[in-house]
């Protein structure tokens, strides 16, 4: 049985970055259908009890950095835990990924998601910059027109719908994977995602 995965992401999330390539490989291996769904964590956190990073307790902020280093080393994925351009607004990149998913399909959206997250966490690039996003489109071989399209009302409406769908699915953080109504939160739950997809 082939499953469909609703893949809820935040392009500025280090955890999305750390899990993205492993999830992409898993989806290919199992033949899963993926729906790439960027969401607005700024609208989700107030409903779920989450806090933006600067508002978290110092102990939690310090432990987050420790965990990022641990996962980076364990997975062999290069990551700067305190990149130059972070915190960074994720909405422009989220809308761009949404536009690409709409016009070019899942494979293109997955490729761009990998490039955007790598830009933040391994390349010291500002994903809130239109110039950077244009460069990432070009590097992925995607149509430059997607950048202007990402700023159109229909793409914002789709982004809002994806955020509401995440709320309705009880999603509270990124990345989250919803399979047959079952929620898996975090790249450290990919083993459970794999079991579900292989069942």
**Outline type:** globular
User: For the largest beta sheet, what order do the strands appear in spatially?
Assistant: 2-1-3-4
Provide the helix percentage.
55-70%
Query: Secondary-structure element order, as H and E?
Result: EHEHHHHHHHEEH
Can you describe this structure?
- With 199 residues, the protein is α+β, with helices and mostly antiparallel strands.
- It is 57% helix and 10% strand.
- The protein has a 4-stranded mixed β-sheet, sandwiched between helices.
- Strand 3 and strand 4 form a beta hairpin.
- Helix 1 runs antiparallel to helix 5 and helix 1 runs parallel beside helix 9.
- The N and C termini lie close together (8 Å).
Layout: helices, strands, pairs:
Layout: E1 4-9, H1 14-30, E2 33-38, H2 41-48, H3 58-75, H4 91-104, H5 106-121, H6 130-139, H7 145-149, H8 153-168, E3 176-179, E4 182-185, H9 190-198
Helix pairs in contact: 1-5, 1-9, 4-5, 4-8, 5-6
Record keyword descriptors for this entry.
single chain; 199 residues; alpha+beta; 4-stranded mixed sheet; 4 strands; 10% strand; globular
Explain briefly what this protein structure is.
Helix content is 57%, strand content 10%. It is α+β, with helices and mostly antiparallel strands and 199 residues long.
């Amino acid at each position: 049985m082939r499953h469909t995965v609703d893949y809820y992401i935040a392009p500025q999330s280090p955890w999305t970055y750390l899990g993205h390539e492993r999830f992409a490989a898993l989806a290919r291996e199992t033949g899963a259908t993926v729906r790439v769904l960027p969401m607005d964590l700024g609208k989700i956190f107030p409903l779920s009890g989450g806090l933006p990073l600067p508002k978290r307790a110092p102990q939690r902020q310090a432990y987050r950095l420790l965990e990022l280093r641990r996962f980076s080393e364990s997975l062999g994925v290069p990551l700067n835990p305190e990149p130059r351009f972070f915190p960074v607004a994720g909405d422009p990149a989220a809308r761009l990924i949404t536009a690409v998913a709409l016009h070019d399909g899942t494979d293109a959206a997955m490729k761009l998601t990998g490039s955007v997250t790598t830009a933040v966490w391994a390349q010291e690039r500002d994903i809130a910059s239109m110039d950077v996003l244009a460069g990432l489109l070009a590097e992925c071989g995607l149509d430059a027109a997607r950048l202007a399209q990402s700023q159109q009302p229909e793409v914002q409406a789709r982004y809002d719908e994806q955020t509401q769908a995440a709320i309705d699915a009880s999603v509270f953080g990124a990345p989250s994977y919803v399979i047959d109504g079952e929620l898996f939160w975090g790249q450290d739950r990919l083993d459970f995602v794999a079991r579900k997809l292989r069942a």
